[in-house]
Amino acid sequence: MYLVEILLPLNDNGGRRFGAEKFESVRARLTEQFGGMTAFTRSPAEGTTRGGGKTVRDEIVVFEVMTEALDASWWASYRRSLEQDFHQDEIIVRASAVTLL
Asked: What is the DSSP pairing of strand 2-9 with strand 92-97?
């Protein structure tokens, strides 16, 4: 079993908040593809990155799904799609093997 997490920014690079429809689209796609998902949207996490001599801060939300099999090519394609939709150079999509107890 795998837990796949997607870290999505709440704001674009200009600081403008994305509309709810962007996140609803992700929710709908993941639910359709995997039969369910969880979104942690109430208390945004804060991410920081350093590059080019400056620190950038982002408020992020986490979407996750559990899946029996990990289709890396599907996830890579979906990540690229999200990067275009959210106008980001990189969106983190990470997977962890999990054991259900």
From this structure: antiparallel
Contact 39, 63 (CB under 8 A): yes
Mapped onto helix, strand or coil, the DSSP state of residue 14 is coil
For residue range 26-62, list pLDDT tens digits in order.
999 999 999 999 988 766 666 666 667 777 677 889 9
Tokens in use for 75? 């996830």
Phi-psi region of 10 (alpha: psi -120 to 50; beta: other; left: phi over 0): alpha
Mind spelling out the 3-state secondary structure of 15-48?
CCECCHHHHHHHHHHHHHHHCCCEEEEEEEEEEE
